[in-house]
Structure formats: C-alpha cells, structure tokens
Write a structure and sequence with these properties.
Elements lengths: L4 E5 L3 H13 L3 E5 L2 H9 L5 E5 L7 H11 L5 E5 L4 H9 L4 E4 L4 H13 L24 H13 L6 E4 L6 H10 L8 E5 L8 H6 L16 H4 L4 E5 L6 H13 L1 E2 L8 E2 L3 E6 L3 H6 L5 H7 L2 E4 L10 H14 L6 E2 L1 H9 L5 H15 L4 E2 L1 H8 L17 H14 L10 H20 L4 H8 L3 H10 L10
Parallel strand pairs: 1-2, 1-3, 3-4, 4-5, 6-11, 6-12, 7-8, 8-11, 13-14
Antiparallel strand pairs: 9-10
Helix pairs in contact: 2-3, 4-6, 13-15, 14-16, 18-19, 19-20
C-alpha cells in the first residue's frame, strides 16, 4: 500500500471530515483546508504527495489553480471533485491536467483506490493536454450516475487514439459521443467523417470507404477519394458497423492490422492516419455466432467498449434534456416555452422507445404546435397517447406455434440477405440458437436439477452436462 500526504481542499466541513476519516483509515497523512489560498501555499512549499480539491472554492476556482499547480509541480497528481457533474466539467478537469475527476456524491472506496493508483504510478509520466474548449458548447446533456460514468471514460480517452466501440439503442446519441471524442480530443483540428453502413448499397461500401481509381468498375469515370482518405489526420466514425458486409469487413480488418489500404482498382498502399470510432445498436457477439460479423474484427474495434444507456435508464436527465431542447428551439426562432411539474413527471415516467431523439422530436412539436406558453400534463398526455400500430404480418401472434414462429423468423433472416445466401453452417448455428433457450428453460423449470432436466428433455444426463458446458449455460440452483 503506497503511503504519502494528501492535501484536501473543500469548503464543506462535512466533506472534509468524511475524506479525512476514509484516507486516514487507509494509512495516509491528511491535511485539510477550506480554501484555495492555503492549498496553493502548501503546494508551493513542496508539501503533499497528492491533491484532492473541489472545483468551486470561496476564493478561487480550482480550474484556475490547476494550471499553476501543474506548472510548478508537474508530477503532483490532482483529483478534482465537483457537484456540477456535467460533461464539460469532466473535460475541463482532463484539459487542465487533473489525474482523475469524481462527480459528487462519490464512493469513498473508489476515491481511496484512485489515490492508491496515482501514488503508485512512476513520476514524470506526463500527457499532452488539449487546448481550452468553449464551455458553452456542451455536446452531451445529463447529470445522472449513468452519464457520469460516460463522462469520466470520455475524459480519459480524449488524449488517446484508442479505437472506441459505442453500443446503444437507436436515438441514444452515439454520433454525438463520437463527435465529442473528436472535438475535444487531440485530432480536433482534423476532419470528422461519418459513414452509415446501413445506408450504403452493399456493392459500394468498399469504394465509399477506400475510394476507387478511374475505370475500376463500370461508371468509375474519375478517381474518387474514400472516407479513409477524407478523414486523414482526423476521426472516421463507422456508424451501424453491424450492417457492414463480410467482404468489406475483411478489408477493414486488414487496414486495422497493417495501418494501410489500397483504393478499389489501385495498387499503391496508402497509409491510414485516422482514429476509428465505431457504433452499433446490434449485439455483435450474437452476430458473430450467426456468422454475420468477423470475431477478429470485433476484437480490433472493441478496444474500448462504451455502452450508452437508454433514456429509460437515466430518467433523472429528462428535465435537463427538455430544458436544453426548449432553449435550442428558442434559438432557432420558435416560441419560448416552459413546462409544469406534472407534465415533467409524465415525461420522466414514459419509457421512450426512441430514446433522446424521440424526446427531442416531441419537444420540438410542443414548441411549434401548441400556443400555450406553459406545457401542461394534458398536452403531454395527448402527445404520448399515439394510436397502436396495425398488426404486422412479421409480428408474432399470441396463438402462434413454435414451428410457425421459427418459420417466420427464418423467412425474415433470409430476406435480410436480399439476393444473397447466408454464410455456410446455417444448420448448426440455428440448432445452437434453439438449444440454449430450450435447455435454459428446462433447467429453470427444474430449479437447476440436471437429473430432472435431462429426464424432462429426454436426453442422457452426461449429454446434458456436456451441452451445458459447451454452450456456456449458467445453472442456478435454488430450493423451493
């Protein structure tokens, strides 16, 4: 366990007491102050091995003090605390040289762990910092615990070129996160180029990504630069990566492995100088099992996985988002609106299948279509009570048999390939997809008793055990 002296600065006496107790129990010497002046005097005298400071101090903002600390003692780690809890707070902490950022309230065990890591790291590590950003241009909105985790990860990624895989439902803001990584990262002076794999015909994806030479195919009348070339020195955002055809996946994997590519019809390798950020709303591990996505490409792209929570998991952010969208609409010339507490509560309780995008669209409708200055609960009810969609032939019916359900699913599966056929090995992939829920259901019904489950399924007990092991099925044993 590393030891050292921790300098704590916070104008809240209760917080100072709690931090003193937690850090003292962990074996550290602790010095406490409620202002930035005393903290700066200690630092300038060479005292302390680590600083923990709140952002808002009675005499000086910690973000103004941080650059002076880093200039005088560049190896002194500084952990910043804040109750402001916005994306820009995390980014500012990173830009000004903070070792880490903790939104209040935070877990004391996590704080002690961060202190231990900071004091264990070799001195002189250093990292390049981004230029100061415009504090008013906040690309991400929300102060919920789920979003705080996102902000902290983003702040740590800003000064790296690590490949990021953003996973989230449609409408959660995957492209906004990708743009934030670019706009506040070290490639911010380069271009941000986005390409949606689902929106490009399968036979044109390679040309779109890597460009083509004149005469490379019918209709190629001149050389065309691909998205990799357009994103030179910047960020390439590959949206809906799960819809990329297998042949294009192979070429993309080669680029990620070798760091260079060739245009369609070209022979001269071109060095790829881009940061890759990919996004998907699909389960790529399931895609891999179905033979639709290369496992080796997944691991190349999934260097830093980042899951964006759906809006229903961050309902506390709805008020901030509503105010943000009302303000944006007003800046565009739409009437100023307010919303009462009952209406806001209804918005917080709604499930939002379309996530933040659905909420934004609704706020714009409320602003444009309703003359009332204050949006009330009946207005929100009217907007949320949309008619039920007509039943689709592709939707399951309550009385549908298992055979009919599988037949409908397989029909949709084959349709997804258009005129092409699925990858070879379909028989075993489908059987595996059926075996897992079947065996899981039998084990659940028998409370994890494999003897009873084997009898229920009509298979040998050793066969069932092998299936459980090979298919990695979790067995939970419970008593009645």
């Amino acid at each position: 366990m590393p030891t050292g002296t921790i300098l704590v600065a916070d104008d809240d006496a209760a917080i100072r007491t709690v931090l003193n107790q937690a850090l003292s129990r962990a074996g550290y010497d602790v010095r406490l102050t409620g202002n930035a002046t005393t903290l700066w005097r200690w630092v300038s005298q060479g005292d302390g091995d680590l600083v923990i400071t709140d952002v808002v101090m009675p005499d000086e903002n910690a973000f103004d003090l941080l650059p002076r600390i880093k200039k005088l003692r560049p190896d002194l780690p500084v952990v910043v605390m804040s109750a402001q809890n916005t994306f820009m707070t995390a980014i500012k902490a990173s830009e000004r040289g903070a070792y880490d950022y903790l939104p209040k309230p935070f877990d004391l065990k996590e704080l002690v762990a961060i202190v231990g890591r900071a004091l264990s790291e070799p001195k002189g590590k250093g990292s390049g910092k981004a230029a100061p950003s415009d504090a008013d241009a906040i690309p991400l909105v929300g102060r919920s615990a789920a979003m705080q985790d996102i902000y902290r990860v983003l702040a740590r990624l800003m000064q790296t070129d690590l490949t990021v895989m953003i996973v989230g439902e449609s409408g959660t803001g995957k492209e906004l996160v990708a743009r934030a990584l670019h706009d506040y990262g070290k490639r911010r002076n380069g271009p941000f180029v986005a390409i949606n794999m689902a929106a490009i015909p399968r036979d044109l994806i390679e040309s779109e990504l890597f460009g083509h030479e004149k005469g490379a195919f019918t209709g190629a009348q001149a050389r065309s630069a691909g998205r990799f070339e357009q994103a030179e020195g910047g960020t390439l955002f590959l949206d809906e990566i799960g819809d990329m055809p297998m042949e294009a996946q192979t070429r993309l994997l080669r680029v990620l492995q070798q760091g260079e590519y060739t245009t369609v019809g070209g022979r001269t390798p071109i060095k790829a100088d881009v940061r890759i950020v990919a996004a998907t709303n699909k389960d790529l591990r399931q895609q891999i099992q179905q033979g639709l996505f290369r496992e080796d490409l997944f691991f190349r792209l999934n260097v830093v996985p980042l899951r964006l929570p759906p809006l229903r998991e961050r309902a506390d952010d709805v008020p901030d988002l509503v105010r943000h969208f009302f303000a944006a609409a007003e800046r565009e010339g739409l009437p100023s609106k307010q919303i009462d507490a009952a209406a806001m509560e209804k918005l917080k309780r709604y499930r939002w299948p379309g996530n933040v995008r659905e909420l934004e669209n609704m706020v714009r409708r409320l602003t444009a279509l309703y003359p009332q200055e204050v949006i009330t609960a009946p207005i929100v009810d009217n907007e949320l009570s949309t008619p039920e969609p007509a039943p689709s032939t592709d939707s399951p019916r309550e009385d549908e048999t298992l055979m009919a359900s599988v037949e409908r699913h397989m029909g949709n599966y084959f349709k997804g390939f258009g005129d092409d056929l699925p990858p070879p090995g379909l028989y075993h992939r489908v059987l595996k997809e059926l075996e897992i829920p079947l065996i899981s259901a039998a084990l659940a019904a028998t409370r994890g008793n494999q003897i009873k489950a084997a009898d229920l399924l009509g298979v040998n007990r050793n066969t069932l055990r092998k299936k459980v092991r090979d298919l990695d099925i979790q067995v939970i044993r419970t008593s009645r």
